[in-house]
Predict the 3D structure of the following.
Amino acid sequence: MFAKLQKYLGNITAVLMLLVMLNVFIDVVLRYFFNTGSIAMQEMEWHLFSMMFLLGIAYALNDEAHVRVDFIYDTLTTRKKAFINIFGTIFMLIPFAFLIVYGSYEFVYDAYEYAEISEDPGGLTHRWIIKFMIPLSFVLLIISSIGYILKNISLLKEAK
């Protein structure tokens, strides 16, 4: 289950990256060759980039592409690495992710309740959709964290 979710998130992130590049390309061509532009296209750039980043967090965790102090971590044994990963995930990552989910609920709800739109004329409507990506991405990170913990428990068993 966790592997399928990871693959799915990776594929979505890759598609979002392509969409960001396409959007930026079209925006640049419109601006510099046709002397026109669109506020909605510019806003879509940061919406797509935000979604790519937020969904990519959960994917990066299980792909070992997250930030840590590698020059210390790389010198450790597999067993010690697994302990650090399990401890850090349970006592730091998961509580932080729950805090973000809890803290962003009202932020998203208010945007939905007030039908928040872009402040710029010609900007995007339905701002709650991009704001909803914050708690969604951290729920996905919590789910990925469970898979990451299980993966490291299995590494512990193999390292005996």
Notes: The longest helix spans residues 78-113. The mean pLDDT is 90.
